[in-house]
Design goal:
- The structure holds two protein chains of two kinds.
- Chain A is mostly helical.
- Chain A has one domain.
- Chain A is built from nine helices and no strands.
- Chain B is α/β, with parallel strands linked by helices.
- Chain B contains 24 helices and 22 strands.
- In chain B, strand 20 and strand 21 form a beta hairpin.
- In chain B, helix 20 runs parallel beside helix 21.
- The model of chain B has no long low-confidence stretch (mean pLDDT about 90).
- The chains are: A mainly alpha, B alpha/beta.
């Protein structure tokens, strides 16, 4: 279990090793505040999405032999789920909604979220392992995002040549971060 | 085969139906009432979720607008279109919010000396942490351009001189640059906020700008002239002075006495530059757009349409209040129309200034009505006015304490003497003889002297109790008197009028004075010498030794206005707010203190407008503790360290001459043609280039 968790957070980091979810990685990493908010929202949504898609897959698709439509089914379910969670939070936990509110719609059909759900199925995880993976992967996402936001906040005030400013230097930095995360290869 | 299609279809449709139903139920179960206007406002926004407004997404911004926490123009990307639509949703008037724009207030840049060599992170906020930055000037721009990077709208660029330059057209007023600047140099303000701002000791002000009683941003407008942006220069002046054509002709320019350039060269001829750019704008019909704030719904009555009343009307109107001016003379402009002679300030020029003020709209003018006769405080309050400003000037003449000065035919106060010749039909046409004497050493006396020359007097005397060097009149005026053949009799005290049998003036007897100990004003007191009686022959004698306010309406028992306190005729006001003892009554200009300069009346008008605005809006009326108080006459009270003893790097170039009508010419001696002329564009540019664009301590060097 621990191996699975460490593997998901560091060795197979969803952002820097698997290269999934790059849009929020670049889009919400300019400020630490938004990065933290995004990370929390991803953990929250992925935990829910992991559970629901796992159940849909094994309860609905497998018995009917419809594994091949999982992409369609998962997207639909995740989208509906996020909308539902948003409505629920707004009514029941307004404080949490205020914190995560604007990030929820942004990750409705995020490839990182979707990717983890598919990994859960491909690796044939049992329920408990699926749960660990659905939490550990987004934690890895958050780790990378927050580290990256820290770097970009420094980059904003640094002397960067004009053509390299903003996204360009961001991508280069992301590349270096990815290289350094490759160093975790072989840990497990 | 069919099954392969039906199976997935059923499953997907089922899933979608379940999800749809759940969401439908959830939207009912978890329904939260939300102001429907939020959705409407959100719909008219750009919808980019950019965060430029400072809220988390468009929905949050819309909610803030509906709840009144943000102005309707909060959506920066949507701009005016979205603001108008949002205002419509909110049931407000279109354009209900004033635009915010950013302004850089420091012109230091590369020229500002540094205390140490900084090699840290290239960011103002980081540099600021080390002893407030490397610049010697404590409030100067550090020049790393944190504001430029913070600007999302490409409206800020680092200029060639090392300080940021704002492109006003692109600026949306989001305030990001102001937040990024650790020194408060970038200031995002509405036009109203800029009008209400008074010079503070924490501001970045050149010595001239500190000295100007109207607080005009002199280095800024001269820089515009240097760049041939004459209309922008004019607008810069108009921010602080709504009568630049008139001021440009008659101001004694205390600012030039503070000009730092005079330490190594002549001071810059600031007033001629103001006159040049203002004349240029009117002569070329350049379009001028002066922003006016949305209506506040308040009405202000201004009693007295002189320079102070007109200026206060201008500032109050720009702050969004409706204004009505009550003027007792047939036409507006008070003493500068009925006191300053045509050859110094042509009435056609004055009318251009007045028209510009009235063109703002929302300023009513009623002429020929006198306070205390045609209306009073009670009728103004009953007429729906929320505040009253007295700017009634000083139309009463002071006594020369010569026996029978009120009865002798041929003795006349300066106010009446000047008024009779400024406009036909006003006052009594006053005929003068061949010899005219004027007592007094101020500018009013000079006006009387030079007018007498033009009215055909052969011999004109100026009688003054001290010496010419002590005369309060402008040096240029005294010089002009010499050019026009006026004789100065210094150190004399008139004691007796000589008359013929019919009581007509024939001469005056005076005692010679010598100067004794300095008196309260710091000047040496003239003491008459016994037995030095001298007689000169004169036909007319003009009293030009000072004026006072006619505040007799405040003496009437039982009248509402009797609660107004007066001192030696002047209305007693708080010097910062210009409020009188009656909270809704204010006073400015000559009536609120000893009579002074036109430019001081205009500066006072802005303070009064500020006081009235703060009073009407229920805001704190007191001036900030950091208010800068400069005595422009004694040249005291400047920000410490800004008045230098010497400067470096200045080449002696000399100031441009004042072009004038040829002394001795027919036009000069016998007509009222304007004597001082406007400088040419070439000369103006030459003079503008002499300006060192000083700030607090740094300035541009010639070499």
């Amino acid at each position: 279990m621990l191996e699975l968790a460490i593997g998901a957070v560091l060795v197979n980091n969803i952002l820097l090793i698997q290269y999934l979810g790059n849009c929020p990685f670049l889009g919400t990493s300019k400020k630490m505040d938004t990065a933290v908010g995004m990370a929390m929202a991803v953990v929250f949504v992925l935990a829910m999405a992991g559970i629901v898609t796992w159940i849909i897959y094994y309860v609905l698709l497998v018995p009917f032999g419809l594994e091949y439509i999982r992409t369609l089914a998962f997207i639909l379910v995740i989208a509906a789920l996020v909308q539902f969670v948003e409505l629920f939070l707004k009514k029941s936990i307004p404080a949490l909604y205020a914190g995560l509110g604007i990030f929820l719609p942004l990750i409705t059909t995020n490839c990182a979220v979707f990717g983890v759900c598919i990994i859960n199925i491909d690796e044939e995880f049992v329920f408990l392992k699926m749960l660990v993976s659905s939490i550990a992967y987004p934690v890895g996402f958050g780790l990378a995002l927050i580290l990256f936001a820290g770097l970009r906040e420094r980059l904003i005030i640094g002397r960067v040549p004009t053509p390299m400013q903003d996204t360009a230097i961001g991508l280069v930095t992301a590349g270096f971060m990815s290289l350094s995360f490759l160093g975790f290869k072989g840990m497990i | 085969m069919i099954e392969a299609i039906i199976g997935p279809l059923v499953v997907m449709t089922g899933l979608a139906a379940v999800a749809g139903t759940l969401l439908g139920i959830a939207s009912k179960v978890f329904y939260v009432w939300e102001d429907p206007r939020i959705a409407e406002v959100a719909n008219v926004m750009a919808g980019a979720n950019c965060g430029g407004c400072g809220f988390t997404g468009c929905d949050a911004c819309a909610a803030a607008i509906v709840e009144g926490r943000a102005p309707v123009n909060a959506c920066l990307v949507g701009g005016a279109t979205s603001a108008e639509k949002a205002a419509a949703v909110m049931g407000m008037e279109v354009g209900a919010a004033e635009p915010l724009t950013s302004e850089n207030t420091c012109t230091g840049g590369f020229r500002a000396p540094e205390k140490y060599y900084y090699m840290g992170v290239q960011d103002c906020r980081a540099a600021y942490m080390l002893y407030a930055g490397a610049k010697e000037c404590g409030v100067g721009c550090l020049g790393f351009g944190s504001c430029v990077k913070a600007c999302q709208f490409d409206a800020l660029k680092m200029g060639p001189e090392g300080f940021p330059v704002v492109t006003v057209e692109k600026c949306v007023g989001c305030g990001a640059c102001e937040k990024a600047c650790p020194k408060g140099i970038m200031q995002v303000r509405t036009p109203s906020q800029r009008i209400l701002h008074m010079n503070l000791v924490t501001d970045r002000l050149a010595p001239c700008r500190q000295t100007c009683p109207a607080e005009i941003n002199i280095p800024k407008y001269i820089n515009h002239i240097k760049n041939k942006e004459y209309d922008k220069a004019y607008l810069t002046v108009m921010e602080r002075n709504p009568m630049p054509l008139s001021i440009g002709r008659v101001c004694p320019h205390p600012c030039e006495d503070a000009c730092r350039r005079q330490l190594g060269d002549d001071p810059v001829s600031i007033n001629q530059l103001k006159r040049f750019c203002s004349d240029w704008v009117f002569d070329n019909g350049a379009p001028v757009k002066i922003p006016v704030a949305p209506d506040t719904g308040y009405k202000v009555a201004i009693v007295g349409g002189g320079p102070s009343g007109l200026s206060a009307a201008y500032f109050l109107r720009r702050l969004g209040h409706k204004v009505t001016i009550f003027e007792w003379m047939p036409r507006l402009a008070g003493m500068i129309r009925y006191g300053i002679p045509e050859y110094r300030l042509p009435k056609a020029i004055l009318d251009r200034d007045i028209k510009r003020i009235l063109d703002l709209g929302g300023i009513d003018v009623k002429t020929g009505v006198k306070f205390g006769v045609d209306f009073d405080l009670g009728s103004l309050v009953g007429g729906g006015f929320d505040a009253v400003l007295f700017s009634i000037g000083a139309w009463k003449h002071a006594s020369a304490r010569i026996p029978e000065e009120d009865t002798v035919k041929g003795v006349v106060p300066a106010t009446l003497f000047l008024r009779s010749q400024t406009e036909p039909g006003v006052g009594d046409p006053y005929r003068i003889g061949k010899h005219v004497g004027v007592i007094g050493g101020g500018n009013v006396a000079m006006d009387c002297l030079r007018s007498s020359v033009r009215m055909g007097a052969e011999k004109v005397y100026c009688l003054y109790r001290r010496t010419i060097a002590e005369m309060p009149a402008n040096v240029v005026e005294i010089e002009a008197c010499h050019h026009e053949g006026i004789e100065f009799i210094e150190l004399c005290s008139p004691t007796k009028f000589l008359t013929d049998d019919e009581g007509n003036l024939t001469g005056i007897e005076y005692l010679k004075n010598e100067l004794g100990e300095p008196d309260a004003s710091g000047r040496r007191k003239p003491v008459p010498v016994e037995g030095s009686e001298t007689v000169i022959e004169i036909d007319n004698f003009v009293l030009a030794i000072g004026q006072a306010t006619d505040s007799s309406f405040a003496e009437i028992e039982g009248a509402a206005a009797s609660r107004i306190e007066t001192f030696k005729g002047s209305i007693v006001v708080d010097p910062d707010t210009h409020q009188t003892a009656i909270p809704y009554v204010f006073s400015s200009g000559d009536s609120a203190g000893p009579p002074g300069l036109l430019v001081a009346a205009i500066g006072g008008a802005r303070r009064a407008a500020r006081g009235i605005h703060k009073y009407l809006m229920g805001e704190d009326m007191a001036m900030p503790e950091t208010r800068l108080r400069v005595d422009s006459r004694r040249m005291k009270g400047h920000i410490p360290g800004t008045i230098f003893d010497s400067i470096e790097g200045v080449e002696r170039k000399g100031r441009i001459a004042q072009p004038e009508l040829e002394p001795g010419s027919h036009e000069r001696q016998h007509t009222y043609a304007e004597v001082d002329l406007t400088v040419t564009e070439e000369e103006a540019l030459k003079e503008a280039n002499r300006c060192m664009r000083c700030c607090l301590t740094c300035y541009n060097r010639d070499v």
